[in-house]
Every structure is written in structure tokens, then in C-alpha cells.
Amino acid sequence: MPPFVGQAPQISFVDDREGWLLTTSSPETQCNGEGVAIWHTADAGATWLQLGSNGIAGTQCKQALSFADHLHGFISAWDDNHAPVIYKTADSGLTWAPSIPLPDPPGWTTQSGGVTLRAGAVRGFGSRLLVPADGDQAGARVQYVFQSTDGGARWTYVAAVKGGGALAIVTASRWIQLLVSPDSLETTDSGATWHPLASDYGQAAPVAPQVVFADADIGYATVRAEIQVTTDGGLHWTYLTTPGTT
Length: 246
Fold this sequence. Notes:
Layout: E1 10-13, E2 19-24, E3 36-41, E4 49-52, E5 61-67, E6 73-78, E7 85-89, E8 97-98, E9 118-119, E10 123-125, E11 128-137, E12 140-148, E13 156-160, E14 166-169, E15 175-178, E16 185-187, E17 195-196, E18 210-213, E19 219-223, E20 226-230, E21 238-240
Antiparallel strand pairs: 1-2, 2-3, 3-4, 5-6, 6-7, 7-8, 9-11, 10-11, 11-12, 12-13, 14-15, 15-16, 16-17, 18-19, 19-20, 20-21
């Protein structure tokens, strides 16, 4: 794996062989700046080629690398004083360009000193792109979803997310808030309404998991080195053996 000195590297694969990796340097105070490098593999990680960071500014911290297909990828960038932006590539990571900053959703005003949103991983559904973003408001976590229909150049607010669990965008219209059973929630109309989800998900850790879906059925939840998988859209979850453990 390529060397890194900053945050843990971010990895995104589009099939069993081709993937990209984002490495970062140590960030400046309040994420005013952070250097990055993009790496590419075409042999399942056996070898990596450094692509550089053409078009990615030094300002802001970078996270949530995601590729929608072999050409189109995204990186979220944020800091404590400005709205987040989404970097996009249409040439497999050779060059990148920033989006217009995400607009403030209803009831939220970006302010310096940490009143800012952090965007997560972009999901692609044909010509529609979706990205979650969260922040802290009066001591409580708030979450929103934004969309782009122009390849990621501009983003618009879609909906606020109910509940405080781990948000997973499963399809363009179906999202879930994964919480310990029986508290998970689901929307099937892009956040307009929410209802209970009969999920058996459980965990011992008192922190939210990271959740990602490969398609409408298969998804993974990770928290503190534990990995669970679902093959029915989030209803039932099974533990997997974590690599490197017995």
C-alpha cells in the first residue's frame, strides 16, 4: 500500500481489480489546508501508480473518496470556516475540479469557528448524484442530503435526515438510518417521509458505524474493527471475520 503520514487512507473500488486510494498529509489547524495524493491500481492492489493531485487545492481537509464508475470519482473537502465542496474527476483521477460550495440547507447557516458541514461519500444513480452532509447544531448532530444533476459541478438541498443513526443511501429514493434494533428508520421517497425499518442490526460499541451499500441489497457496516454484512437491503445482518483477527 502507498505510504501515508496524515489521516488513514481512503479507498474506492469499482470492481474486483480497479480502485483508487487517497492519501493525505497532516492537516493544518482547523483544516485550513491539507496536501493529498491520488493512487490507482488495476491489479487488485498488487501495485499502485501515483496520479498526483492535479486540480485539488491545498485548502481544506479531504475525505470520502468514491468512484461511481471507471471514469467518474469524487472527494469531499471541508474546514471549520467554510461550506464544503466536492471535487470531481471525469478522467479516472488524472485531473480534478471543485464544485460550487454546497448551499446552506433550511435552518442552517455556515459560520466560522466550526459551524460548518462535512460532506460524506458521493453515490451515483445514473445522472443523479447524492451526497450526505452532517454538522453540529446546538449540541445535536444534524444530517442532510444534497443532489447534483450536472456531474457534481453544482449541488442542491434535497432533504433533512430524521434520527441520529448512521445514514446509508441505498438507492436514489431509499435511504436508511441504521440504529441498534428496533430503532432503525427508512425512507422510500428521498427523505419526504420516514418510517420504522424492521432491521435486526446490533452492536456493542456506543458509536455510529460506517455503512455503505454496493447495490440495493448488499451492504456493509463497520465499527471498531467489526464488520457486518446484509444481503437483503438492511433487514438482516451477519458478522464477518475481520481480516487480521481470529
